[in-house]
Design a protein that fits this description.
The complex is a heterodimer of chains A (244) and B (390). Chain A has six helices and seven strands. Chain A has 244 residues and is an alpha/beta fold. Chain A folds into two domains: 202 residues, Beta Polymerase, domain 2 (2-Layer Sandwich), CATH 3.30.460.80; 31 residues, no CATH class. With 390 residues, chain B is of the alpha+beta class. Chain B has one domain: Cytochrome-c3 Hydrogenase, chain B, CATH 1.10.645.10. The chains are: A alpha/beta (244), B alpha+beta (390).
Chain lengths: 244, 390
């Protein structure tokens, strides 16, 4: 087991830092840093649980090779993308007859941060040492707004379909992928459904029935539901704090 | 093993040569054969376009999407508890197993853990949905290879399992029983005794299938050495579940990861097979069904008492964070990458389904095989269309 230097100093306290997964995941980050250098932007290790790393978009494919060959993550789990812009339509519960409320579309990133609205992320698993790594990279918009990132097809053959899916759903082009046909959508489909600014039409044309028949919420602190009276019924197991 | 791989390589070279011959020397026209979308071997609506040179496949292209329901988009307009009723429909033969990883991911983000009894009952229902799912595979396998009897046996005995699931959860196919923090209800009275009897019946069913199908010479000829997937290729394509274990990779998410289910409390076998051919994949599934009945028996022995629901807020708000939880579903690794931004609903859910990866290998594995083997290989890879199309 690899011990961290500061973990040794506090070895007397029963910290969960000494879990076997801990040194393992720290090692992953270290190995990636050795290979990629500046290419590794940020990392997050949850001891004994999981590890996230973010690399520069230029280092995306190199990071794939490093994960496969240096870190030993032979098993490809998935590859996808994420649009970090909050949806301008909220959860699609607006009344279609009223003007849509103003919503902030400020981009708020998750673990390991980010600079761009779109990120690609993938997960690979090391089957020998039993851990998975989630790796992310920003996809900055180029000059006419197109999103391009290197394909992982040469790293993991299984990335083929995942990249096709990410391409049609987010409009991200994977450079080096020979066959970015649509996976699910009709060929002539316009738009990229999983982008947050793509409206869910079923929710646009008819009011969401949940608006009218929703039970009174006990907390009443939900800004989306201004009409709640805040009556806490005597439900057992109700631990919502600050009820009234 | 090397012989088997060589065979695959040779057929690949033959296919390449055939392709070249097709275009250059003989100027014969290849035939394009369309399999599906409505074909019994497709478990839904998968269309596979294969180009043939004589009897040999030179090129295959599966095209999914006839049943795409856009669950990843739909989860973004649902609250966390509402998502389970959607994801029930991903792999419709083992519905309960779809709910578990999502609920576990939400619980992980919230820092909630279900009480022990709920974890055990979850594990039992999880294994029951595995049995319900894979027993149908074992029956259907026969139909696809030209034997009609096993499917009747499968439907007969699967009914017992569905009845169990129904009596415990209220839903035969789509239980929607898992809740953040535990389960909707406790088990009904007399359920444990009945489950033990059904598990005995299911073990008999496995024996019957083993004798009837796996010992059958025709079955052996149709599946042995057909559609070999070497270990390295299986890993590259991200195969999981029985397909991966049939290629000799000893990897089972029930055993090999820390997960708040009861698998670490009991002892069970993980079956692997070195061959990587169609027979291995079918054989692994048979063994796993039998193993699952034993797991259920062992879990029933040690079922702890106590509540089935932890204390959770009535309005579930999941704190900001990201989590990936995957479990060993009947079809393979199924996981949810859940991103929450502290709202009532998830910000983004990436659904990693087993069949999607398992079928992405089809263009590779079908290259160079003969037409009747196409169906064998598709049957042995075992996919559910809902699991590909999401």
């Amino acid at each position: 087991m690899v011990q961290l230097s500061d973990a040794v100093a506090t070895a007397s306290t029963p910290e969960p830092l000494a879990l076997p997964g801990d040194g393992l995941r720290e090692r992953v980050v270290q190995q990636l840093r050795d290979v990629l250098g500046e290419g590794l932007v940020d990392s997050l290790v949850k001891p004994g649980d999981d590890v996230w790393v973010r690399v520069r978009p230029e280092a995306w494919r190199a990071a794939g090779f490093a994960l496969r060959d240096v870190v030993g993550c032979q098993h490809f789990s998935f590859l996808s993308a994420i649009d970090w812009m909050p949806s301008p339509f909220g959860r699609g519960e607006d009344d279609p007859t009223a003007p849509p409320p103003e919503r902030s579309t400020e981009v708020r990133h998750g673990y390991t941060g980010g600079d761009a609205r779109f990120q690609v992320f993938a997960r690979v698993t090391n089957l020998v040492e039993h851990f998975g790594v989630t790796i992310k990279a920003d996809v900055p918009a180029g000059e006419n707004g197109d999103l391009v990132v290197d394909s992982w097809l040469s790293v993991y053959a299984g990335a083929n379909w995942h990249e096709r899916e990410a391409h049609e759903m987010f409009g991200i082009r994977f450079a080096g992928h020979p066959d970015l046909r649509n996976m699910y959508l009709p060929t002539e489909f316009e738009g990229h459904p999983l982008r947050k600014d793509f409206p869910l039409l079923a929710r646009m044309v008819k009011p969401w029935p949940g608006i009218v028949d929703v039970e009174p919420l006990p907390g009443g602190d939900d800004p989306n539901d201004g009409t709640t009276s805040g009556t806490t019924s005597g439900t057992t197991g109700d631990t919502e704090e600050g009820g009234e | 093993m090397t012989d088997l791989v060589d065979r695959q390589k040779l057929s690949y070279i033959a296919a390449q040569a055939a392709d070249a011959r097709l275009n250059v020397e003989l100027e014969t026209e290849g035939m394009t054969l369309n399999i599906g979308p409505q074909h019994p071997a497709t478990h839904g609506t998968l269309r596979i376009i294969v180009r043939l040179d004589g009897e040999q496949v030179v090129w295959a292209d599966p095209s999914a999407g006839y049943m795409h329901r856009g669950y990843e988009k739909l989860t973004e307009v649902r609250t966390f508890p509402q998502v389970t009723s959607l994801i029930n429909r991903i792999d419709w033969l083992g519905s309960f197993a779809n709910e578990v990883p999502f609920i576990l991911a939400a619980e992980k983000l919230m820092g909630v853990e279900a009480p022990p009894r709920a974890q055990w009952i979850r594990t039992i229902l999880f294994e029951l949905s595995r049995i319900a799912n894979v027993s149908l595979f074992l029956g259907d396998l026969g139909v696809q290879l030209g034997a009609i009897t096993p499917v009747f046996m499968a439907f007969r005995d699967r009914e017992y399992v569905l009845n169990l699931i129904e009596s415990a959860t209220g839903g035969r196919f789509h239980p929607n029983f898992d809740r953040i923090g535990g389960l909707k209800d406790d088990l009904p009275k007399g359920w444990i005794l009945e489950t033990r009897q059904v598990m005995k019946k299911l073990r008999n069913f496995c024996d019957e299938i083993e004798n009837l199908l796996f010992g059958n010479a025709i079955f052996q000829i149709r599946t042995r050495g057909i559609g070999i997937i070497p270990k390295e290729v299986a890993l590259q394509y991200g195969l999981s579940g029985a397909n991966l274990r049939a290629s000799g990779v000893d990897w089972d998410l029930r055993r090999d990861q820390k997960i708040p289910l009861a698998y670490d409390k009991i002892d069970f076998k993980v079956w692997t097979h070195p061959d990587g051919d169609s027979f291995a994949r079918c054989w692994i599934r048979l063994q796993e069904t039998r193993e699952a009945t034993l797991i259920v028996d062992k879990l029933l022995d040690g079922l702890p008492a106590g509540p089935v629901m932890a204390k959770v807020p009535r309005i579930i708000k999941v704190p900001e964070g990201e989590a990936y939880v995957s479990t060993e579903n009947p079809l393979g690794e199924m996981g949810y990458y859940v991103v929450s931004q502290g709202d009532l609903g998830p910000f983004r859910v990436k659904i990693r389904t087993a069949s999607f990866n398992n079928i992405s290998i089809v263009p590779w594995v079908l290259r160079g095989v003969f037409v009747p083997d196409v169906i064998t290989i598709l049957a042995s890879l075992y996919f559910i269309l809902g699991d590909i199309d999401k």
